[in-house]
Amino acid sequence: MSEKGDHAIWTEKYRPRDFSEIKGQKEIVERVKAFVAQKNMPHQLFAGPAGVGKSTLAIVVAKKLFGDQWHQNFLELNASDERGIDVVRIKVKDFARTKAIGDFPFKIIFLDECDALTREAQQALRRTMENYTTTCRFILSCNYSSKIIDPIQSRCAVFRFKPLDNKDLHQIIERITKDEHLKITDKAKEALIEISEGDCRRLENIMQSCTAISKNIDEELVYSLASVAEPKEIKELLNLAIGNKFVDARNKLLDTMLSYGLSGMDVIKQIQKQIMELEIENRVKMELIEKCGEIEFRMTEGSDEFIQLESLLAQFVLAGKNK
Prior knowledge:
The chain is an alpha/beta fold. It has helices at residues 10-13, 26-38, 54-66, 85-96, 119-131, 150-154, 166-179, 186-196, 200-211, 219-225, 231-242, 246-260, 264-275, 282-300, 305-321, and strands at 43-47, 74-78, 107-112, 136-142, 156-160, 183-184, 216-217.
């Protein structure tokens, strides 16, 4: 890393400071930007997967709206840390009932991961949003809007974020590579984009982990530090199973899990992706994907991971015999 970034966490160092720096979500950014220009906005609900810019956009809104006084007029709480009704009755209400500092019409309360709030806390939040509209606006952030009660959703302008496109992730990689004076291969870039799955935060964390070892980043380094097996290794063990070589496939599975430090859930997700690349009938692919779902469910219920993965490999062997 450069001297500038020696002790910085990249998710903070490269966090956008302006609307123009936010990657993806163009329609959402334009609508929110219009609210800021008018110095008036409704309560807002940001819903979408992790690492796509929900928290960043909320902070940019506060900075653009309040300028140098944004810290005094902006309260950020993580609802997953304090899930109960007390956080709404005490912290939120105390901040919401006072007027904004400076010549501003309202304060902003940003509740991150608010889908972790209990239903009782959400009911209390609903009343607070209703009672203090003149002095405070709420920006709520969640991964699953279905976990937010309808009365809260109806009081908010809902913005649904989507994973970042590959071109946006590519631009982020290029910027970091230039700023941190890194050398990164094309295959490593493809691996970073594939592993991050539209999550900018994960992308930056993996790149920073890689630079702790070497400034020359290749595909193998990315996969090893992301605790993800190379796709070719997963495909190889599946082909062994389909070729009726169960013992070899089982040994390859064990070696791969130990080499990369993978859990059963990590492996099942990678297997599910590689099924579509196998040279078998589409009908058989569908049956194997169904088996993946069944095995994944058993793992979440507490079954032994390796036994379940062996069971799945046995299904691939049977599928190979019937090919």
